[in-house]
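Structure ticket #2291
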Amino acid sequence: METYRYPQFDAVVYAAKFKDVKNAEALRSRIVKAASLDGVEGETERDALNFAFIEAKLITSSLHLETAIYQALLSESQGSLRTKTVHSEIIWALNPTNNISEAIKLFGVSSRTTDLILVRAATSNTCDVRQRMHNIVEGSLVPMSTIPDSTSWADVKKHYKLNGEPALKEAAGDGNRERAVIDNIVVSTVAMKSVVA
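Resolution: structure written out below.
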């Protein structure tokens, strides 16, 4: 698990990657159900699930993820969230379009998710985040440095509409260079999203 500190936003962000997730469908159902629960039960369940659940196969690097986190925190600090929470804003920031439903469908947890990234943004150090993650995800916690191991580069190119990108054509045949170009483009897309939205 990684911890990122953003003093300018008075925020601490925790991020962890899980592989071989066995309960993705149950997590998705639980998230949907928690949104409609009322009273103390609803508040308790929403607090337990107070994370961004991100499909790891569409994340190209730690910088890609950190850029989305930064953009979401910036929007929250300016009172300009386009979604209901900072966690859903992270998912929205990752999506190349402005459609939140599409963002959740593509970048959120699905029944097919096997590698999952959880992100928790808080205003202070939270000592039990790792345990709370383990309480809800059935999978193996792995280092965040393994993000590119899960990346489906073909899916990233498809969703970011990069198949005709001239820079990628120049890098054709050199896998490492092509992945670096893709990463640069998607990180820039996320960084610029709030400007063009």
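Closing remark: The CA atoms of residues 5 and 12 lie 5 Å apart.
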